[in-house]
# Entry
Amino acid sequence: MTIFGWLQIAVVLGAVLLCAWPLGLYMARVFSGEKTPISPLVRPIERAFYAASGIRPEKEQSWLSYTLAMLTFNALGFLILYVLLRLQGNLPLNPQGFSGVAPDLAFNTAMSFVTNTNWQAYGGETTMSHLVQMAGLAVQNFLSAATGIALAIAVTRAFARSSAQTLGNFWVDMTRATLYVLLPLSVLLAIAFVLSGMPQTLAGSVEATTLEGAKQTIALGPVASQEAIKQLGTNGGGFFNANAAHPFENPNAWTNMLSIWSMLLISTALTFTFGRMVGDGHQGVALLIAMYTLLIAATGVVYWAETSGNRLLTQAGVEATAGNMEGKEVRFGQALSALYVVATTALSCGAVNTMHDSLTPLGGLVPMFMIQLGEILPGGVGSGLYGMIVVAILTVFIAGLMVGRTPEYLGKKIEAREMKLAILALLVLPMAILGFSAISAMMPKALESLANAGPHGLSEILYAFSSAAGNNGSAFAGLNANTPWYNTTLGLSMLLGRFAYVVPVMALAGAVAAKKKVPASGGTFPTDSGLFVGLLIGVILILGGLQYFPALALGPIVEHVLMHAGKTF
# Structure
């Protein structure tokens, strides 16, 4: 590790925080229906959408109506994308002549992009036509991200309001998230990417002559536009199979830093939105400090683990001074590779500029654990905020038990109903991750997909289901996931991780919104203090450790011990 490396990390995170604060305040105005600088341009378009679809923006919805609208909209999006994938061979804008996608892969891919997972069990440049990339995958990149933002705003309103029966209007929140936030930022970022050398064309490929004189066909397409929303919406689905390690998706060090910045931007900004909408900016800052404390600590662990090198490679005669460079781009270096690894898994992004399967055991453990924590540090756009609020509720409940008082969060008493719903939500991820992983580890047919035996093979399975249930999308590349078993079970994990999680969260929001806000008293536990931040961090780590440590001990931890002993399984 070097001072220059840490300086690079500090510059990127500093730029995120610098831009997130005004963006967060801007989003608070957007979702409060206030006028913004782009309202004169966007509001007529917004009204046209409402008029065409028969939406009455002034009519708000209960938590149940809001949730049903969200589920219906996403079910329709899944169906449309599935049909588009199956009929790809008969549709235009297919210069490569690709045929339709197999049913199990179409199910997996449609579920993946609708749930903001963007898991890819295929090579983008060898499987998907330009029409599917643009009208199918990129559209869902916008809509799944807008859905997450809308849900976070609905949960925020639950704490901002007193004795309320409604949480807003899903159709309005989703429309505003797209028109006022995602689309303008994506246009600006896509232009910046094009200026940095990223392709944006409808051509299918170009022929190049290699140094040896041979001909090579290089895939092209509308890369920059999809890359922009891929990063801003924490989607992560790459145009190319190598994702952000591909020189067309990530041409240089500047695009690499811009990619990390854009990944973190909206999720970080939503904490400021939360603080503004609940009327106490310190509450959002407290959540942000907890998020970034763990994010920076995790980056430090990966940076240290990778620069320390791999003893097995050193024994094989590989130069050790650069650390473990297997699976990494020399264009980006260890520091920004480590930050990218942690950021993409602390978020529900899943974009990669480094092959996670080639990380050292501890370097691979950290991103896996970040996903298993629920991707709340700062998490996906929207999903990270409402996931963090659920953990904050659990924290104040534990604090209340310690002092013998009814717990409160932002003036709302947290009682038995709220805790049951919070625990129900928190159980979804470990059940999906550990359940499907255990079954796959015992099935001979599922084990045939592994490239490695022993603890690393278990890590490949565990990472896959962690990524799917956590709606992340990154992978340990040694697992061949394009099989009927993995396409189906990973798709079901994505479904559970997104919607089985958010339904109890929305029920929790409905219960909280109906409560009357009570003023703080001398006995109220302050949730904007350093003590609360420390408790919140402790609950996050203890909760994750209790749920996943036994499985991690059999995978990356055993592999780390073997590596330091100079042995392999």
